[in-house]
Amino acid sequence: MIRIASKLSSRASSTAFAAFTAKSSPISCTRLSPLAASSFRSFNNGLELDKNMANPDAIHMINYALRQARTDISVGSYGLGMLVLKHCLTTELTEGKDPLNENSKGIALLALSTLLSERGDYADAIEKLLSVQELTNSYLGIRVAAFEAQAGLHLELGQDDMASAVADKCVEFVEKQGTGDFEALNIRAKALKGLIELVNGNIKSAEAFFDKSLRDKLCDGTAALSYAEFLQAKGNYSMAKEIYHNVIQGATEIKNCGNPYLGAGNMILEGLMMGAMCSLGQLESHLGNFRNAEDSLTKALKKAEETYGEKHPKVGVVLTCMALMYRRKAIEEQSSSLLIQEGLYRRVIEILKVPPVETESEAAAPLVDRSDIAALARGAYAEILSVQENRKDEGNKMKNLAEAIWRNPRISLTDALANSDTNKASIIDARISRLL
């Protein structure tokens, strides 16, 4: 592996730099000259870095590292991927203040932060994202992506005030750059504020942060996904559904294009696709289109397992959405799917590592990551147990523990489960594992 990495890093990068300078205008810390949309798609969505704006060998090393990390999604494979990325950050490809090298260093740091966060090392992941802000000669989209990823990780950790502070810095940073080329980045930064408002249940306040252009030309990114979730929460289901489809299609096009995607942590391209599929499945379920809902949620589950591994918490989040869909389907169609639901809930509990009932007192309130998701799964599972005569006691214990780990200050667990049977249902954002 080291020989491969060394070989990649030892190639001369002068040809790539010549191509870069010939095809684009110089990058400064405050301004990026406009490029033709045909050669620089990130002008349209602020999500990509044109291949010519980074060292080709650095891109090869980063892609190789990510592929290795996801070969069998184990401690060893992640370790190998991180080793390659750390090596990339020590080579001449990422050294110095040259824009080409700073762009290369920036996307390498984003990739390293992603792998760290997926292994649960949030502190080091955030530290790498903070390092990106020191790259004052890099393309601004890289630094915006770092802000977005940092806020996303804070949201996943339940640190909403810190996420809001980071989002404020992101908006302030982009607004200082002016207009023109930075329209997409400005819209993306403000949409991050909108997502935080949704997490806090402030649907009315969130509206001011979403630009209407997210409906059409800027429809294939993280900002658009948050906007679609806002529309769904507001009750505009047709528009939300259209944007979810656009996000999935746009993300697929970005992936096929091959340019480095400007995202990290829980805001990576695969997370975007998984999140859009999962939110679309929830919307279809709310509309009673259960076949479509099952199809979208199955795709989201497959994407989550391929990206993070079968036992990653993100998989548990998608499985919860799927189980709640079957719950709603059984209620509306007056049918029974107890075995399917129970199997899904048991797997969620195992994945999210919720303490087993028999080891916890009913009055205890254990600190559980993604506690709202874990509590929803337990609460719904308790209902299944309670309708079975010989398992009512088990159901009561499950219900009590579910209520004990519920942390959401704006709605009770009982109301959240009741609302999941109506069009008032809250939305689970699979990217940040939070209830909107």
Overall description:
- The protein has 436 residues and is mostly helical.
- 64% of the residues lie in helices and 1% in strands.
- The protein has 20 helices and 2 strands.
- The two termini are 43 Å apart.
- The N terminus is likely disordered.
What key phrases describe this protein's structure?
436 residues, mainly alpha, two-stranded antiparallel ribbon, 1% strand
Widest β-sheet, arrangement of strands: 1-2
Order of helices and strands: HHHHHHHHHHHHHHHHHHHHEE
Shape: globular
User: What's the tally of helices?
Assistant: 20
Give the overall average pLDDT. 84
Number of strands: 2
Structural class computed from helices and strand pairing: mainly alpha
Which strand-content bin applies to the residues? under 5%
- Work out the radius of gyration: 22 Å
Largest sheet: 2 strands, antiparallel
Helix content: 55-70%
Q: Note the gap between the termini.
A: 43 Å
User: Can you tell me the residue ranges where pLDDT is under 50 for at least 5 consecutive residues?
Assistant: 1-44
